[in-house]
């Protein structure tokens, strides 16, 4: 670990050591820079998978005779996916109790308020608390094996189900990361392959958290966007490359910092459209975040439908909440009709 990084971790530890509790008073939103999103670059299988999804979207466009594709294979945006969500709170000894149930409920509400218009619902099934100094730094723990073992023991549910891990001592310059959908055939049926599937969030980014300017809970919204298959709007840092492979997000070379005062930023002046500074998949601050595009929503539906939704929930807590009859009424599983 570099000295700078080490200091950041120590500072994060010291800072979180004040045992702040949620909710905190609204911040002055002065921090100009979003911390890093450590979601890994998509791998080759992702690009192969996304081509399959794009083929479906293009075929639907031809069938419909419209420029804007609507999936017929997965009737995009005509139903709502319900995503059963398991939250794991990992705190250091000194920070035990930092993340309250109220803060977790508030975070889930932010996810729902944001994603409901795009026809996704997050249903909080269970919250688990762990106290462990080493694990409280999350994936940045110095003991990778120990951390992996923790995930193996704690990740809950199927590939269709979301596990959000929240850490009290995440490095302060890192905000979060998620795994993108793995598009290999039948991956969802291989528990040993999906033990590390999920999202990891800095507790300070939760609504009312201590990271000024980034404490409205939108880090989780951004990260879940990755979990549902979206890339950054500035993917590739290039005006001419494939970018995020979504047709209605403008070319963007650089991430946005804070929120440009006049509301305009254009890092690809030769290309149509300004940078999507209000898009959840940019790096703007929380008050600047506003929307996904229509085709990002289509992409999330298709990625979830194609690569995650095949795994029917068998988790006892989900089954308790939604008995068989309910699940069947609910269009089989996972979906509820939009009326
Ligand atoms: Zn990201």
Automatic annotation (TrEMBL):
<dbReference type="GO" id="GO:0046872">
    <property type="term" value="F:metal ion binding"/>
</dbReference>
<keyword id="KW-0862">Zinc</keyword>
<comment type="function">
    <text>Secreted metalloproteinase that allows assimilation of proteinaceous substrates.</text>
</comment>
<dbReference type="Pfam" id="PF05572">
    <property type="entry name" value="Peptidase_M43"/>
</dbReference>
<keyword id="KW-1015">Disulfide bond</keyword>
<dbReference type="GO" id="GO:0008237">
    <property type="term" value="F:metallopeptidase activity"/>
</dbReference>
<dbReference type="InterPro" id="IPR008754">
    <property type="entry name" value="Peptidase_M43"/>
</dbReference>
<dbReference type="InterPro" id="IPR024079">
    <property type="entry name" value="MetalloPept_cat_dom_sf"/>
</dbReference>
<protein>
    <submittedName>
        <fullName>Metalloprotease 1 protein</fullName>
    </submittedName>
</protein>
<feature type="domain" description="Peptidase M43 pregnancy-associated plasma-A">
    <location>
        <begin position="218"/>
        <end position="303"/>
    </location>
</feature>
<dbReference type="GO" id="GO:0006508">
    <property type="term" value="P:proteolysis"/>
</dbReference>
<keyword id="KW-0732">Signal</keyword>
<comment type="similarity">
    <text>Belongs to the peptidase M43B family.</text>
</comment>
<keyword id="KW-0482">Metalloprotease</keyword>
<keyword id="KW-0479">Metal-binding</keyword>
<keyword id="KW-0378">Hydrolase</keyword>
<keyword id="KW-0645">Protease</keyword>
<feature type="signal peptide">
    <location>
        <begin position="1"/>
        <end position="19"/>
    </location>
</feature>
